[in-house]
Amino acid sequence: MEILLDNRNGKVWDISEIVTDATWKTGRNGSPSEFDFTLIKNGLNQDQAFKIENGNIVRFKYQGHHVFYGFIFSVNGGKSEDIQVKAYDQIRYLQAADTYVFSNITASQVIRRIAGDFGLNLGQIDDTGYRIPSLVGDAEKLLDIICKALDLTLINANRHYIMFDNFGALTVRNTADMILPFMIGDESLLYDYSFERSINDETYNRIKLVRDNKDTGKRDVYISQDSANIAKWGQLQLYEKLDENQNPAQIKELLNTLMTLRNKETEKIKLEAIGDIRVRAGCYLPVIIKDYGINQPFLIDDCTHSFNGREHTMSLELKVVWKK
Q1: Inter-residue contact 90 to 143 (CB < 8 Å)
Q2: Which residues, 6+ apart, have CB-to-CB distance to 322 below 8 Å?
């Protein structure tokens, strides 16, 4: 484990030996990755020039892998010799708010535009393809505007892209290209798990879409529903107002996509496993658990790596969104 601290004054400190424990957290749903660590207060007291302050740059590598590059946002100390430090990657700066009006634009173009305006570093940006007819964010968080663009791409093109920071470079990838080359299961890395199947806030069995018709002066209504699931779960309706330029064929395709994505139970698995640093939120992880008949890839919603001495473990929350 290598942890370097850059004070931004020309001095870079190697603090690996005085860090007692660390965690690296990644989430799939629009949040910066987080790196928390504890260090010994007087570990470098032989050099009075050493300071740790908000805004300092932290670089974390593990077994040769470039893991985290970010900025300190919190330093917490007291009477004890321990200091707790929290750092976020550059996505944290997308929590700023602004107003944007876009038309006929892809999600990847939205991200490039916002990142350029706010001085963020870009890495690999996959072309998301789908052109969003209209996207308005009025005094909204930049991250919410970006997530809205990615959600519209998923709903209308059925392609799932995620944005994350890859060691200091803002990155956009298709999750279909992020399948990990190994599995976790009964005989591999796994030592504890729990399984949940639920209908939640993302579950809908009736889709109602409306569009203002400027020719007739009335509102067109389009509905798709699953009567069998309504009988089982009760009516769970999703209501959305559409852009007036969408034609009936596009609306029908959207109805079918929304029913496919939303009209189903959500399956989640929580895993406790021996750590593998290649695992992060947004990747697909093949999982085999015989007791539940599970043998398929799961999308990682949240991932926490914990480092304590030579011990490296990880806690994962997984979601079924794609099956073989």
Answers
A1: no
A2: 176, 284, 297, 299
pTM: 0.85
Residue 106's CB is within 10 A of a number of other CB atoms, namely 19
In a domain, 324, yes or no: no
Q: Are residues 46 and 126 in the same domain?
A: no
pLDDT tens per residue across span 45-86: 556 778 899 999 999 999 999 999 999 999 998 777 899 999
Parent domain of 309:
178-199+266-319
14-28: pLDDT as tens digits: 999 999 999 999 998
Instruction: List the CATH number of the domain containing 83.
Output: 2.30.300.10
CB 59 within 8 A of CB 6: yes
d(CA 179, CA 175) in angstroms, rounded, equals: 7
In a shared domain, residues 166 and 226: no
Query: Is the distance from CB of 321 to CB of 268 less than 8 angstroms?
Result: no
pLDDT value at residue 321:
56
Asked whether residue 78 is domain-assigned, the answer is: yes
| Residue 40 forms part of a structural domain | yes
Please choose, from the candidates 275, 261, 260, the residue with its C-alpha nearest in 3D space to the C-alpha of residue 315. Answer: 275
Question: Do 97 and 185 belong to one domain?
Answer: no
Q: pLDDT for 150-180, tens place per residue? A: 999 998 998 999 999 999 999 999 999 999 9
Q: Are residues 37 and 163 in the same domain?
A: no
Write down the H helix ranges in the chain. Answer: 107-117, 142-157, 227-233, 248-262
Both tokens assigned to 199: 């209908």
- When the pLDDT of each residue in the chain is averaged and rounded to a whole number, the result is 92
pLDDT digits (tens, 9 = 90+) for 248-306: 888 998 999 899 889 998 878 899 999 999 999 999 999 999 988 889 999 999 999 99
Rounded to whole angstroms, the Cα distance separating 126 from 36 reads 30
Same domain assignment for residues 184 and 293: yes
The answer to whether residues 64 and 98 belong to one domain is no
